[in-house]
């Protein structure tokens, strides 16, 4: 059968037209992925997989959507189908390799990458996709996986060599990402600028430049870059997210309320422009925590819906627990944090804050022992949490559990020897050990002599660090009085005397009113000690006692006794 030239031309035209429609659809799907509109991209790609079931690129991009949203098993299933449908296409082998990396199986990943190179070693896209796979390990909600920059850059560089005409902006974008993720901003700028040369419509490179400025704390410069992106494309969601995070950092994480509010406003815009994937909702929840908008955080976290078997369910419980505690909703905090630990099976993903908030919630519920164990774990993970030990100790002090409070203040001093509030830890070790001993003595129980000795050492540390802090000497006097009574019961040695004497010299005139009871105690005991050793000193101290409290019966009687012999001698004359 003879086929006319016109018919051939017409058929070719139909084929080309069909290819153009298909290519445009795949391009739109990729744009949706870049804009983090994952549900939209997923819907488009599922349609493409159905209509073009033999084209492996559709499966590959659908699998990437699953990887980006955290569904590794679903992604692996799609890549496997794509490999079956289009076995000569290397992309799905690369997708399987990326899934392996995210599953912490680099050996299997390399096997899949090597197979992909066998199929497409002359195609720069093969190396570009492998390079991107090595970079894709950097995920905001994942504290474990990290990019393999060496292999990433090696493969992207190979892609650049094969793309001899520099026609694909994606190569430069990937190279810029590789450097930016390492905080090598100077090296990243060049490739990002090249992206704009190759594809002026690309929004992500300029967004990344704004992000780099943010990370360098060059906030005005970063703000300008991101506002330029938004002016060029008001619907490009990732620019709003980066602008929101820039304002958050610029606000010093919620300290500047005006900038923090701008940050939240832009992040909400990002959420409205994207499909509110589980990943983006969790990132928004984390954003709200650092912006200190705990009320909104609790609402957002409570509204997040994740499949029951989804590992990210644990993160939802985490955010609920953190927010509930900050909002003083302690029962919900305890329930949510307990749920988090039941759901999170990978202990490497548990943060210091998780132990901290569970411990704090348990403390509010009166579960002291459990609370302390978890707060100690939090401190071991991150020493910055040592302040929570002081908070726990203060709560125990308020509950009049003085021995436990002292124990916890000792731990706080151990883990936070020089940090914020550390000197008060040493003071409260002394105060609690004194009160512990006071009640033990009152109940005729043996004193905790080891605890008293440790308290004396702690107060000594405080005095060395702050020699003019009067109260440390006062409690050191009390502590040494108990040590003296215990160790030298038959003949006390006056261990407390140097500390009482130091204390009374350090109290400033303007502090005497607030320190009145402590001064009375000090002058009375000093007067009693010196009564049979140095009468002049004793009389001086007792007079000072009476000057503060004329009704003090001990000082009145003792002073009368000390002055009586002199008065009798005068009468004899």
Automatic annotation (TrEMBL):
Q: Does the keyword Signal apply?
A: yes
- Keyword presence, Signal: yes
Q: Where is the signal peptide?
A: 1-23
> Which UniProt key words apply to this protein?
Signal, TPR repeat
Q: Spell out the InterPro entries in the cross-references.
A: TPR-like_helical_dom_sf (IPR011990), TPR_rpt (IPR019734)
Membrane-spanning intervals of the chain: none
Where the TPR repeats fall, as residue ranges, is 56-89, 169-202
State the name under which the record lists this protein: Uncharacterized protein
The lineage, from the top, is: Bacteria, Pseudomonadati, Bacteroidota, Sphingobacteriia, Sphingobacteriales
